[in-house]
Write a structure and sequence with these properties.
The complex is a heterodimer of chains A (291) and B (471). With 291 residues, chain A is α/β, with parallel strands linked by helices. Chain A folds into 2 domains: 118 residues, Glutathione S-transferase Yfyf (Class Pi), Chain A, domain 2; 159 residues, Rossmann fold (3-Layer(aba) Sandwich). In chain A, 45% of the residues lie in helices and 11% in strands. In chain A, strand 1, helix 1 and strand 2 form a beta-alpha-beta unit. The mean pLDDT of chain A is 95. Chain B is of the alpha/beta class and 471 residues long. Chain B has 3 domains: 220 residues, FAD/NAD(P)-binding domain (3-Layer(bba) Sandwich), CATH 3.50.50; 57 residues, no CATH class; 164 residues, FAD/NAD(P)-binding domain (3-Layer(bba) Sandwich), CATH 3.50.50. Chain B is built from 11 helices and 26 strands. In chain B, the strands form 9 sheets. Chain B has a 5-stranded parallel β-sheet with strand order 7-4-3-15-26. A 5-stranded parallel β-sheet of chain B has the order 17-24-18-19-20. In chain B, helix 1 crosses helix 2 and helix 1 runs parallel beside helix 11. Chain B is globular. Classes of the chains: A alpha/beta (291), B alpha/beta (471). The interface between A and B is small, with 7 and 10 residues.
Chain lengths: 291, 471
C-alpha cells in the first residue's frame, strides 16, 4: 500500500530524523510513503486574514499536484505542513469565491479533492492502533511519555478535526499501542511559543519552561512531539532555561516517529538521536528501551 | 370542602351567571373544568402562579417531578441585590402553596400525555414510586434519622451527604420522605429494612408500584425552570470536573448557605482548608457561540458579585478575583450593587477570560489574561467558582413535545410574541413562565409567573362566558 507523502522542507534538513524514522516505520507496518514529485514549500503559515490569498497559492499548487499525480490522499509528518495544507484544502472545498481567485491565479483546476492526513491519523484511522500494537516488537515498557500536542496539530479544531482541542487522546492512545505509559500533564496542549522565538525570545523560553517543568513534575521520562518547531523550541531552549532556573532538570524531547521506530526494533543508532541537544539515550537505556 | 357559589350579573342587559369557589380545601374535581389549572414545575415561578390562581378562586394542581416544591431558589443562599435569605423569602410561599385550600400539590409526578382543547384539557400524570405511603406518613423524620445508607446529596449538588430515604431539604413541602431505590440497601441488597421497622405508622412500602392518573384542567402553565450547563463534560479546559476545588456557582450557593454542607464555612471541598484566594469566572459556557452557548446567561454578573461579597463577609482577609467580559447589571439597584462590591469590598475585577485551570499541588492554577493591560495572568487559587451558563432543565424538550409547544435550538420554549405575548405559546391554553422560556432572575420569574396566571384566568373566563352564551 502506497500513500502519497509530502515531507516539507524542515524534514529534509533540521527534522531529518522525523522523516527518516517515519519512512522506515511505514515499511515495517506494511505501507510505503511515496514522496510527491516536484513538491515545493507549503509556506508554513496559514493566512489569518480573509483577503490574503497569495500565501495559499503554494499549498494549493501542492494539493493540485497531488491530485494530478493520481492521488486522493496526502500524508504529512510535520504539524505545520499538516495545518497549512489541511486548512488550505478546506478553503478549496468550501469557499467558492476564494477558490476561484487562487486557482485562477495559479492556473490550476482544483476543488479540494485531496484528503490531507497526518501520519498519526493514518496510523489510527487507516492502519488501526490495534494492528500497530500487534506489530510492536519491543514494547516501550515502563517508559513514561509526556505526549505534547502543541497547537498546530489540533487547532482550529473545527477545521482540523483530528481530535478535541482541550483534552485530546490520539497521542496517548498511540503511546499505549507502543506499550509505553502516557502521563497526563496540564500543559500538553499549551503553545510552546515558537512563533514568538524571533520576536521575543524570552516569551518562547518561558512557554517552553512551563511545558517542560510540568511534564517533568508529572513524572515523564521523555516528551514527544509531531512538530519540528516544538521539538526545536523545547529541546534547544533548555540550556537557556537552566541559566535562569538552576533547579530545572532537563528532559529529552523526541519525535513520535523515533519512539515508534524503537518499538518496531529499528536500530537506535540510525534514528538521529545524536542531533538532539538533550541526549535521550541515557534515559532510554536506563528504562531498557534500548540496549 | 369548598363551596360553589353562583354569581349572577348583567351582560349587554342580559343576566349571566358564573361559578366561584369559596371556603377551604375544596376538592379539585368538585369545580368545573374551566376553573381548574395545572402548573407544571414547582419553583418560585410555578408557586407564584399557583398561589395567584388559588387566591383568585381557581383550583390549581401544582405538579413537580421532585419529591418537594421550591425548585432552584431553595438551593440559593442569599439573593441579590438585597442580600436577603432565599429560604426566608421562599419558605413562606412554599408553605402557603402547600396549605392553600385551592392548591393541590402533586410531587414526584411527571406529565405523560395531553388531550383535549383549551378550556378542557385532559392531562395524564405518572406518579413515580416513592416507596412511602404519603397518606400514612406524618413526616416525623424517624426513618431519615435511622437510615444507615449515606451517599452524595442531590440537593447539595454533590457537596453534602444524604440518606437513601430523604426529603430534599429540611424545609421540604410536602414534608414527606421518598426512597432512592439505587441507594437503598433493602432495595438493592434485600437486607436492611431499618426505615420500615422504625416507622411508627408503617408507611414504608417497598412493594409500591408506579401509578397513573388523568386530570381535566382548563389551562396549563409550564414553569420547568433551568439547569446548569454541563461544563464537567464539555469544558475539559476547566478540569472537566476532575479538580475538586473547581465548582459551579449553584454548588457554591450551597457552600454559602448556613444550611449547606459546610454550614456556611468557606472551606474548600478537597481538604477542608479555609479558602484564602478565590477566583470567580464569569461567562463559562455562555457568550461563546463557537463552542458552547451563544446567549448571555443574564444573572451571572449579579450572582458572582453577590458570591464575592458573601465570601468576603465570611473571610475578611481573603482575596477575590473575578474574571469578566463585561458587567451586565440592568435591574433595579443592580448597578449600585456592583459598584459597591468594587469600591467597598476590595473585590478585584479582571477583564479577561480564563484559558485553563489545572491543579498544581493543593492549588488550582488559573491561567488567564487581563485584556485591559494586555498581560497574561496566573493565579494560584484555593478555589475556583464557575458562573456556568444556565440551560433549560433536562426533559424540557420531551415535555414540549407532549404539550405541542415549540422550543428553540438551545431548548428554551418559544413564546407567541416575545414583546407582547411573552407568556403565551402557539397552543392556546398553555402558558410559559420563568426560565423555561428564557433566562431571568427571581424577580422577573415571579413576575412572569403572575403574568401567566392572569393570562390563564383571561382565557378561562372567556371560555365560561362562551359556554353561558351558548346556553
Amino acid at each position: 500500500m502506497k500513500y502519497p507523502y509530502f515531507p516539507g522542507c524542515t524534514l529534509y534538513t533540521k527534522a531529518k530524523k522525523l522523516d527518516d524514522a517515519g519512512r522506515e516505520c511505514s515499511l515495517k507496518l506494511g505501507f510505503e510513503l511515496d514522496e510527491l514529485k516536484d513538491w515545493t514549500c507549503c509556506g508554513a503559515t496559514f493566512p489569518l486574514v480573509n483577503d490574503q490569498h497569495i500565501t495559499m497559492s503554494g499549498p494549493t499548487r501542492i494539493l493540485a499536484d497531488t491530485k494530478d499525480q493520481g492521488n486522493d490522499k496526502l500524508v504529512t509528518l510535520c504539524s505545520v505542513c499538516f495545518n497549512v495544507l489541511k486548512r488550505t484544502n478546506n478553503v478549496m472545498l468550501n469557499d467558492e469565491e476564494r477558490r476561484a481567485k487562487i486557482t485562477d491565479f495559479i492556473e490550476r483546476d482544483y476543488h479540494g479533492e485531496v484528503e490531507v492526513l497526518h501520519y498519526l491519523q493514518l496510523l489510527r484511522d487507516e492502519i488501526g492502533f490495534d494492528v500497530l500494537k500487534e506489530k510492536v516488537v519491543k514494547p516501550l515498557e515502563g517508559l513514561k511519555v509526556a505526549c505534547y500536542y502543541g497547537c498546530l496539530l489540533l487547532r482550529p479544531v473545527k477545521e482540523i478535526g483530528l481530535d478535541t482541542m482541550e483534552d485530546p487522546s490520539i497521542f496517548e492512545d498511540f503511546i499505549r499501542a507502543l506499550g509505553g505509559e502516557p502521563i497526563e500533564f496540564p500543559y500538553k496542549v499549551e503553545c510552546c511559543g515558537a512563533f514568538q522565538a524571533v520576536h521575543s525570545m524570552d516569551t518562547a523560553t518561558r512557554c517552553s519552561r512551563d511545558i517542560l517543568r510540568s511534564a517533568k513534575n508529572s513524572g515523564a521520562d521523555v516528551v514527544i512531539t509531531t512538530c519540528p518547531l516544538c521539538q526545536f523550541n523545547l529541546d534547544d531552549r533548555q540550556p537557556e532555561i537552566q541559566k535562569s532556573d538552576p533547579g530545572f532538570s532537563s528532559i529529552p524531547v523526541v519525535y513520535f516517529t523515533q519512539l515508534l521506530a524503537l518499538a518496531l526494533d529499528l536500530p537506535a543508532e540510525e534514528l538521529g538521536f545524536e542531533r538532539n541537544l538533550i541526549d535521550p539515550l541515557p534515559i532510554l537505556k536506563e528504562k531498557g528501551v534500548i540496549a | 370542602m369548598g363551596e360553589l357559589i353562583e354569581l349572577t350579573g348583567l351582560k349587554d342587559g342580559e343576566p349571566v351567571t358564573c361559578v366561584a369557589v369559596f371556603g377551604d380545601h375544596a376538592d379539585f374535581e368538585s369545580v368545573p373544568v374551566d376553573r381548574r389549572v395545572m402548573v407544571i414545575g414547582g419553583g418560585i415561578t410555578g408557586i407564584t402562579s399557583a398561589v395567584d390562581l388559588g387566591n383568585a378562586g381557581y383550583q390549581v394542581m401544582l405538579v413537580d417531578r421532585l419529591p418537594s416544591i421550591g425548585g432552584r431558589m431553595l438551593q440559593l443562599s442569599e439573593t441579590f441585590p438585597t442580600l436577603d435569605c432565599a429560604q426566608c423569602t421562599l419558605t413562606p410561599r412554599t408553605v402557603e402553596s402547600g396549605q392553600h385550600p385551592n392548591v393541590l400539590l402533586k410531587t414526584s409526578c411527571e406529565v405523560e400525555g395531553l388531550k383535549g382543547e383549551p378550556g378542557d384539557f385532559t392531562v395524564s400524570i405518572r406518579q413515580k414510586i416513592t416507596y412511602v405511603d404519603w397518606n400514612k406518613c406524618t413526616g416525623c423524620g424517624t426513618c431519615i434519622q435511622k437510615c444507615p445508607s449515606q451517599s452524595i446529596a442531590l440537593f447539595e449538588r454533590d457537596a453534602g451527604r444524604m440518606t437513601a430515604i430523604y426529603t430534599l431539604s429540611p424545609q421540604a413541602v410536602p414534608n414527606k420522605p421518598v426512597i432512592d431505590a439505587e441507594r437503598c440497601r433493602y432495595l438493592t441488597l434485600g437486607k436492611c429494612g431499618v426505615c420500615a421497622k422504625s416507622c411508627p405508622v408503617e408507611a414504608i412500602d417497598y412493594e409500591q408500584q408506579e401509578s397513573f392518573f388523568e386530570v381535566r384542567v382548563g389551562a396549563i402553565i409550564v414553569s420547568t425552570g433551568f439547569d446548569i450547563y454541563d461544563w464537567k463534560n464539555k469544558m475539559p479546559e476547566y478540569g472537566g470536573g476532575n479538580i475538586p476545588d473547581v465548582i459551579d456557582g449553584l454548588t457554591f450557593e450551597r457552600y454559602l448557605s448556613a444550611s449547606g454542607p459546610t454550614a456556611g464555612a468557606m472551606i474548600r471541598p478537597s481538604d477542608g482548608k479555609l479558602v484564602k484566594d478565590i477566583v470567580f469566572i464569569q461567562c463559562v459556557g455562555s457568550r461563546n457561540p463557537e463552542f458552547h452557548k451563544a446567549y448571555c446567561s443574564r444573572v451571572c454578573c449579579m450572582y458572582t458579585a453577590k458570591h464575592a461579597r458573601l465570601y468576603k463577609h465570611g473571610v475578611h482577609d481573603g482575596q477575590v478575583y473575578i474574571f469578566y467580559i463585561d458587567i451586565r447589571s440592568t435591574g433595579k439597584g443592580y448597578e449600585q450593587f456592583i459598584q459597591q462590591s468594587v469600591s467597598e469590598e476590595e473585590i478585584l475585577y479582571i477583564r479577561g477570560r480564563v484559558a485553563k485551570l489545572h491543579r498544581d499541588g493543593d492549588k488550582v492554577m488559573v491561567q488567564g489574561a487581563d485584556t485591559l493591560t494586555g498581560k497574561k495572568i496566573e493565579i494560584a487559587a484555593d478555589m475556583v467558582v464557575l458562573a456556568a451558563a444556565m440551560v433549560p432543565n433536562d426533559g424540557a424538550k420531551e415535555l414540549a413535545d407532549i404539550l405541542g409547544i415549540n422550543y428553540n435550538d438551545d431548548g428554551f420554549f418559544i413564546e407567541d410574541n416575545y414583546k407582547l405575548a411573552s407568556v403565551e405559546t402557539g397552543q392556546q391554553g398553555i402558558y410559559l413562565a420563568g426560565c423555561c422560556q428564557g433566562i431571568k432572575d427571581i424577580a422577573d420569574s415571579a413576575a412572569q409567573g403572575s403574568a401567566a396566571s392572569s393570562k390563564a384566568m383571561v382565557l378561562l373566563s372567556s371560555v365560561r362566558r362562551q359556554k353561558q352564551e351558548a346556553v
